[in-house]
Write a structure and sequence with these properties.
homodimer; 343 residues; alpha/beta; Rossmann fold; 2 domains; five-stranded parallel sheet; four-stranded parallel sheet; 16 helices; 9 strands
Amino acid sequence: MLDEEPAGGRTQVTVELIEDAAERLHGLAVRTPLLESTQLNEALGMRILFKPECLQRTGSFKFRGAYTKLSRLPMERRHAGVVAYSSGNHAQGVAAAAGLLGIPATILMPSDAPTIKIENTRDYGAEVVFFERNKDDRQALAERMASERGASIVAPFDDVDVISGQGTVGLEITRQADYMNISVDDILCPVGGGGLLSGLSTAVKAHMPLTRIWCAEPEGYDDVIQSLAADQLVSVTVGAPTICDAIVTPQPGWITFDIIKRFVSGGFSVSDREVMDAMAVLFDRMKLVAEPGGCAALAALLQQRRQFAGRTVVVVVSGGNVDRADFSRILSEASALENVLRA
Amino acid sequence: MLDEEPAGGRTQVTVELIEDAAERLHGLAVRTPLLESTQLNEALGMRILFKPECLQRTGSFKFRGAYTKLSRLPMERRHAGVVAYSSGNHAQGVAAAAGLLGIPATILMPSDAPTIKIENTRDYGAEVVFFERNKDDRQALAERMASERGASIVAPFDDVDVISGQGTVGLEITRQADYMNISVDDILCPVGGGGLLSGLSTAVKAHMPLTRIWCAEPEGYDDVIQSLAADQLVSVTVGAPTICDAIVTPQPGWITFDIIKRFVSGGFSVSDREVMDAMAVLFDRMKLVAEPGGCAALAALLQQRRQFAGRTVVVVVSGGNVDRADFSRILSEASALENVLRA
């Protein structure tokens, strides 16, 4: 295992860093399985393998990156604690990782975050401070708070250690596909700031260079798609309504986009309607509870199903933290799969 | 692997038969993970590992036994097909296994079975024939139909091949616990006719003889508990209302009870209310979709939590085939975990 040291010394996300993260996470993170439904495969005319990170500790992949980052903090910096800002899944990941390592954690959360995410973050032992999503500059708030306390900031995505932790999702996919003797044509992954997508891509392209990687974003927040098209960072105006709270970001990160533009073949933007239908498909066919943002990749695959016909596709379900009432409402409003496929 | 031969020659469920079933199921059945939530562990004061068979192919453990049975049918008996009777999960298991092996399947189902189970059984390619749950003798109907066609009956639980297939759940638990270096104190498992419970017990007791095994039944259908108390087969009167359609049986099987009475320490009966609360806990904390009968073991553990305090417990979630509307209704009526624990 690598020495504990600040990320300052590391600017590149490497497969070695991802393998080190996998070692740190062994026995702590869930090695989520690859799940499939032959019925769904037949209905869609392709082979789909789901990587259900909703089953991950804290209900999303975010635990992987947060724990990796915190476990690499040098001992002398741990007592001053960590500060993070997050709409909820990173918050829970950092809070749970900090709890495991005995590090004090303060989390800035938007006041409109889903109740389940706020409650869980407190449950893991973190202090929660609220900010206004469309008013406050959360990063500036976090930096001020961290400098006052001498605490370390755990960035939600644009950080080599965080990215290498999320990359263990990709490493597991390559190992599981290998074990199952499956050749994966494509991987579809939801994207917000790009931590998961960039880490996953780094691991996957090292082991399965022919596999194409695609991302899925909510309509109105297609900053990665626009950035890929422009071959440079593009910001979108925040404000469009979306149910995908977990993956609402105005622009990708510098580090993440640098990786994404090398490895990702393209992206698809999905509507709330398409995301709701995908959630219901995961309920009906896979018995998985996924949150809206966590379903974006399946929503994109359903939208683009003709393009992916006949292929073997891994779909990442990135999180499952959704309130009971929201889930029930979405189930009641979503279409049956047959109707989705008829559209 | 064992030769294909009718089960007539085998009357004992052995670990070797279960290991043979595991080989047959390799790459076809999902090797469901052991999942846990540190929050739930802390709230309940014990370590709980869930074995989520709702993630199994066809949405329940039943695929394991059905495929094992069918794959051991001699070639010359396959063309005449198979007949099964089932409230739904065994139906789907047999239909899917028959589809994989190219064997024609006819399934007798109660007319009030959940829509999702009927539709899925047809989707897998089986012919569905309805019977009246409280009027017709489903076993007699099945036997007449099978003898008319020369078809083989796939009994839902009281069959050595079926039991050995379900036993692979237990085999996996022992291997996963070993890999994770966990000493399992107790296993809680839902029980209907006892196929899963008896197969699981056989595998577990061979490898972890000190682990205690418990079963959970719906109120009004506690035939296994009553049979254990009487040390002989006891039948209950069918008719009490329950939401646990998957595990409604009037009495355990002869073969299954013979194993259960040797290996099972006792059982707990659970109310619809307790089952609904358990379903909501699996939604909130584990992001799993479980059907009512599939949650009976967790319901029992919540009910008996003081007795199991401080222990390491594996809870089997046996299935997840539940309609959207039923699931939403149950989520809206169920209590929050804090209220369950306060009661």
